[in-house]
Amino acid sequence: MKLYGIKNCDTVKKARKWLDENGIAYEFHDFKKDGLPEGTLTGWEQALGWETLVNRRGTTWRKLPEEVRDNMTADTAHTVMLDNPSIIKRPVVEHNDTVFVGFSADDWETRVR
Q1: Which residues lie closer than 8 Å to 99 by C-beta, 6 or more apart?
Q2: Which residues are identified as catalytic?
Q3: Using one digit for the tens of pLDDT, what is the confidence trace for 38-54?
């Protein structure tokens, strides 16, 4: 299992704590610190769609120019996510040939066990 996110994100902290408490091994990739390979992002977009990945509730979204927010397409979203990985919903998890976003202990009970 590979968990992508930002180290200081509260949701990522909760997810990592849950994994640790349940003895589930994972590799953590801090995409703010370690970058986000374009091929990885492309795979996520193909699996989930860009709309699922873009966090429209966060500070990074609000800091985007209104014109960018109002006219976002798959192409512009891809560029924005590469330039500003903190706009991606967190955590993103790659596990058993699947990709999913977010943390819910109940959901993870079935997804990662």
Answers
A1: 43, 44, 47, 48, 92, 93
A2: 9
A3: 999 999 999 999 999 99
